[in-house]
Amino acid sequence: MNDLFLQLTVAILIGIGAGYLGSFMVLRRMSLVGDALSHVALPGIALALVWNFNPFLGAFTALFIAVLGIWALERKTELPSETLVGIFFTISLAVGLLLTPEPELLEVLFGDISTINRTDLLITAVSVMAIIAILSFIKRSLTISTLSKDLAKSMNIPVNKINFVFLLMVSLMVALGLKVAGTLLMGSLVIIPAAAAKNISLSASKYIYLSALFGALSSIGGIFTAVFISIPAGPAIVLASGLIFLITLALRTQKV
Amino acid sequence: MKEIILDVQNLSVSFDDNKIIDNLSFSVRKGEVIAIVGPNGAGKSVLFRSLMGLIPHLGKVIWTPKLKISYIPQKFGVEKDFPITVKEFLQLKSKDHAKMMSALESVGLKTKSNDYDKHHIEHHLLKQRMGWLSGGQLQRILIAWALLDNPDVLLFDEPTAGIDIGGEETIYNLLKKLNDEMSLTVLVISHDLNIVYKYANNVLCLNKEKICFGPPKDVLDRQALIELYGGEAGFYAHKHKN
Which end of chain B is more exposed for a tag (fewer CB within 10 A), N or C? Predict the structure, then answer.
């Protein structure tokens, strides 16, 4: 398979998955959590590199532990856990920076899609399809519990379980995207397409669909720009999504 | 007298050693309209949440088995920029279009009478973003949402928050109408005593503990109001020393 085609396919899949998932994260006011969460992957990847096991596994494990922490906090306090999340996540970034071997540091921080192989494509394709399928399955419960936890509970929706499954999907998606955008930028792949879609959508169905579409378009735009002017793909994808956001901001839906 | 469908005995709720509700007992009969009044922080919303079994409590809350209860929480609004249409919102509860139309009809949104109304509902209201509805429209849609699964009981926390006075009356008229027509039992938290006098069979005055319970004109006397809201006592009784 041609290198560019492989990169493009993986990036588009990541874009679609991150956009779809991000649409729920933005509505659940998890933008900041999502951004900071990707930093937690760093110590996981660092340990994987030092101990010589698969970095994806290391990242996913670290993210999963962090997500368990958020979940427990939310259950216990019902308060926004942003301060704690902010402190804990930046500390893990610091620890990760110290642990990561120097030669790999840049790739881990900003991603490097040029090193991607067919196994990565397979893992990405299967995981993204699973994430979208599972989220579609819990979409109704997720939406009601986003609108009001009490309302959801009064309708016998297992709010804590749904929340847990959702956070699990978040950690999987972030871990998948690290190859493309790295630990510093992955959060924005989840947040920006959704924020852009929100600007121009009246309905939930259009919003979710556009969010996934903008994710894919950012990836396409970013990869081609990266190839043509020889810059790293991760930042180029983030900038492409930023451009889409600015355009939608100008076209923002207004009440008629 | 109709059967008792909700019996609350010695209900107490505490958060971190703070007693929010203290030893509350009352009962509700089928088809009644019960208004719950009390100052801010009196435990009204907490009472609803414990009636719905959403928070831990001491004492007993006994509902008649197999009762369908619809609950609309406090400040349940949809943020202005939350992308969801009225139709999508109602579909979260039921995908049945005919049911949706009949629920809208019940809350006074005419869906059958003529083509103009029908067009308005189908093409304007249902496709409107939830966050852009006016306060009164939003409350109607919330009530329609609650009616979608044909409940026996409706628990509504502050139905008129954010609505002007004229609109308030309309929402209560609507709740009363639903109470008459569908023998829907309504428990409603309210801050407006005039409304309570006009519509409720019984009023529960709550300020951490039960201050009064019974038909409003019997139990809502000056003494109860002073106990409930405090303050006003001074207005009648105080004398200046100089």
Answer: C
